[in-house]
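Entry type: protein chain
Record version: 2
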Amino acid sequence: MLRTDWTLAEVHALYHQPVLQLVAQAAEVHRQHQTTGEVQVCTLLSVKTGGCPEDCAYCPQAARYHTGVQAHKLLPDAEVLAAAQRAKDAGSTRFCMGAAWREVRDNRDFDRVLNMVTQVNDLGLEVCATLGMVNEYQAERLKEAGLYAYNHNLDTSEEHYSEIITTRTYDDRLGTLENVRKAGLSVCSGGIIGLGETDEDRVKMLHTLATLPQHPESVPVNALVPVAGTPLAEQPRVSVWEMLRMVATARILMPGTMVRLSAGRQEMPVTEQALCFLAGANSIFSGEKLLTTPNPDFDADQQMFALLGLTPRQSFKNHVPAGATVLAGCGA
């Protein structure tokens, strides 16, 4: 059974053990709870880019930073549907639509997004969206339209959060996750490393995710992609050993969760990605862009899958109905 009662001391001990020992433990947990060699392939499309009023220090879509990102309004439905079909044809089984909004507003643009969700769902893909903060009613409308999952990352620890974002609070983020869960949607929430945080901030973020009332079904592990014009433009690249610690610890804490290699994968050679798969990563974003930053394309990922003997995970596999419970106090 899955635990949601991890102590901070337990997470700290897991994260800080020798890295090869940590990876070996994570690999064993992965074999016990997941199908090894199976990876969920996801594609992320920015359906509304730039002009965001937030001040996230890492984000090139913030209107206040001069990053060269060209803002555009919502894409036409036909363009989104064509992108979803291309992703499906290339092997993706989850299609995520992102809009650079601070929060969802009940207006014509949201109605258009709901229509996009319905059309992509009709293709047989798991539909995910990341649209900023949502209330429970808006999450329910997304669910009714056919949305499968909603992404809303914590980004970092609560203690480090104000160093990265001041235009919304940590509780705002947790509140959105609660609204998404109440609506019966699959929860996708992770974070970014390389923001100038400490190892203890990373431990605390993982602890927060692993002690939610129910584990997120997906946890993206992002490495910062520094962008000129943002406050974090000069941050150094995250090492593979840092990624391994995050992936492996997340796998041990949340055995049934999809742990996704997300932003920063473009800079990781196949050897480094293979180590992350060994440590329990079993989801990737594929396609040439993640919103506005470069990402490995479908052909490169197909070659990697062939080399490593990986197979794509099918859509809606092991879907847990809304309202399922997770018991605390049992070993992972």
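Comment: DSSP finds eleven helices and twelve strands in the chain.
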